[in-house]
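Researcher: Go.
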Amino acid sequence: MPGPNSLQDSRKLAAILAFANEAVISLSLDGTIAEWNPAATRMFGYSAGEIIDKPFVSIVPEEYRSQELELLKAAGRGDRTLDFSTRRIQKNGTNIEVSTSYCPIRDEGNSIVAVLNISLDITDRSRLELVERDRLFLSSIVSSAEDAIVSKDLNGNVTSWNTGAERLFGYTASEMIGNPISRLVPPEHPNEEPQILERIRRGERIEHYETRRMRKGGETIEVSVTISPVRDRLGRIVGASKIARDVTDQRRWRKAEVAESFLGALVGSAEDAIISKNLEGHVTNWNAAAERLFGYSAEEMLGKPLTILLPDNRQDEESQILRRIRRGERIDHYETKRRRKDGYVLEVAQTISPIRDNLGRIIGISNITRDISVQKRSEERERQALLQAQEARRQAEEANRAKDEFLATISHELRTPMTAILGWSRILASGTLDPDRQRQALETIDRNAQAQAQLIEDLLDISRIVSGRLRIETKVVDMAAVVAAAVEAVHLAAEAKHIRLQAIVSSGAGPIRGDAQRLQQVVWNLLTNAIKFTPRNGNVQIELERVESQIQLRVVDNGIGIKPDFVQHLFERFSQADSSITRSGGGLGMGLAIVKSLVELHGGVITANSAGEGKGATFTVKLPISAFRQEEPLPVAERESSVAIAKYEGLVGLKILVVDDEQDTCSLLRFLLEDAGAIVETALGAEPALLLFGQFQPEILISDVGMPKVNGYELIRILREERHSDIPAVALTAMARIEDRIKALSAGFQMHVAKPIEPKELMTIIASLVGLVNRRHPETDRG
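Model: Structure:
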C-alpha cells in the first residue's frame, strides 16, 4: 500500500490536473489515451468517458498523424519534445492550433511505462499574430508609398501623415498632426476644404480630383487627390483618408487610390498591383489590381512562390531581390519583365520594400508593381522613329553628296571635249592653219564630238534602264565578229599607249541570239575600260570561248586593279573608285552599270575580279546559247565611223524644207542636203516655216521639235489638220527617249532622228521617204 506521503502527492497531482488550463493527457506506449483532465474536455469537447481507451490519433488531423506518432515513439525511448506547434480536431470537427509537449513517465525502477502529452490552445494567439502581420504590412505600404497618404478627422485636423506627404508638401509629421489640413490650401481656393468635408460627412468619395496645393515654402503644385470616408466598426464616418499625387510634370498619371477606410481599402482599391510575400518569396497578400494585371486570382497565388511570374530568362532575379531585402535595402522603380497567366510578358516597374515589425525586424516584403508596357512600346517606337529619321537623313546626305559628285563629274566630262571642239573651231575659223594642221584639228573636233555624244548616249541608256524601257532586238549574232569589230574600234587607243591588245577566239564559240549593236557596246565598253586603266606598255587580252551551254567572254588586263572594298559597288550607277577632281580616269561611272543591264537583258551574267590595287582586273561575261535556225544570216556587227557622204540619187532635185531655231543646225543640214543634190530652204522657227511652206511647196519636211512659241508638234498639227498636207516629215530632236519617239510619230511625223545628227543615218532616212513623195501632184498640198 502506498504510504501517507505518496497518497498526499497523488491528491496534489490530481488537484493540479483538475484546475490546469492546459490539456493533460496520459498515453500508453501504443498511443491509447489513459487519462484525460477537465482542461482537455474543455479544449476538445470530449468527456473522459468518451475518449479514454481510444487511440490518441483520433484527435490529430490526418496530415499530422505520422509526425506525432514519431514524437510519441521518441518519448517512449526517453526523448522530450517541448512547444511543438501542430493542430487538433475538436469533437465538432473544428481544427484548432495547439502548442504541445511530449515527455516520458517512468516507474520506480526508472522504466518508461507511459507518455504524458500537454497541449495549449494557441488559436487566438495565431490569429492575433496574423492580424498584427497584416497591420504591419499595411503600415509598411503606407510608409513606403510614393504618394502622400494622409488621414484627418471630420474637423479637418490631420491625424496621420506618411513620409510621402513629407516629401510632397515639405512638412514633417510632427508639424502637421493635430493641425488643420487647410494650411495646404492656396488662398485662391478658400472654400475647397469645407466643401470636401461636407461631402465626406455625407459618405461621398472624391476620386481623381485635380487641384492645387501649397508646399511649406509657399510653392504651389498641381496634385491629383482621392479622398475617402473612414468608418468605424459600426459603419459610422469618423474621418477621411486622402491620397495625393504630384501631377505637375506628369498629368497622364491619373491613378489615385480610392479607399473606403484609411488602410484597409488602400490595398484593395489600388490601381497598381500590391503584393506582399514572406522572406522565402511566397505570396501572403494579392490585391485586386494584381489579379487584373497578372490574371491569377488571390486563391491561386497565396502561399505560392512569386517566381511563377518570372520569365525563364529572369529566374535568378527573385533570389537577388530577396537577398537585398533581407539586408534592409529598398528597391525603387526597378524596371523588369513579368509573365501573365496567359503567357504574355509585361514590361513593369516595381518598388520593393522590406516590412518590419515593432522591433524593426524584417518579417516580410511589400511589392508595388505598375504595368509600363504601353510606355515602353511608345519609347521603343520613338527610338525606332529616331533611328529611321537618322538613317533617312544619312541616306539623304549621302544621296546629296553623290548628286553633287555626279554633277561635278558630268560638268567636267561634258566641258572637257567641248573645250577641244570650241578651241579648234576658232583656230580653224582664223584661217591660219596649213592643210596638215587643219586635218589634225578636224580629227580632234570629230573625236571629241563623238566622246560627248557617247556621254549623252550613256545618260539616255541609264534613263532607259531606270525606267525599265531599255529594249533589245534579238537576231542571230556572230560573237567572233562582234569581238573583232570592238577590237578594231579600240586598237588606235591601245596603240597610242603602246598597249599590247590580243584577241583569242575559240573556233567553238558559235553564234548566239541577241542584239548585235548592244553586244558590241558591251565588248567595246569593257575593252575601253581596260585600256583606260592600263598603264603604257601594258597588256589587255580578250578571250572568247564556249563553256558548256554558254559563251564566255573574258577581258583581262594588268592595269591598276580594283580595291577589294569597291568590287561590290563596281556595277552600281555613277560609282567610281576615285570620284575626286584629281582622278586619273574620265567618264561618268555609268559604263559598267549599262554593261551589266545589257548582259542581263540577254539572260547572262557579268562578274569582276581583281587581286588588288596594281594587280590588274578580269571581267567575265557569260551568255546563254539559244537554239536558232542555221539558215538565218549571221550579221556582222560593225562600229560606225565617220565616212564621206555619198550622193543619193533619190535626193537629187528633191525639195526639202528644214525648220530649226538654231542657225548652225540649219546651215549644217543645208550643206549636207545640197551636197547630196537636194534643193533646200531653211526657216528659223515654225512661224517663218508656215509662211515659206506655200511659196516653196517642199516635198519633204525636216523639223526640230523643241522650238519657242510654236513647237514642232504644233507645226505638224497645223500642216496635217488645217492645211491637209500629207508631206513626209522627219522629227529632229535632242530628246531621244522611247516615249519621245512615240510622241513624234503619234503627232504625224514619219520618222524620228535624235541629235547629235549622224549624217549617213540622216541621208538614209530621207532616202527611205522618197517613195512617199507625190511629185506629180504637188497641188494636193494646199497652202
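Model: The first strand starts at residue 23 and ends at 27.
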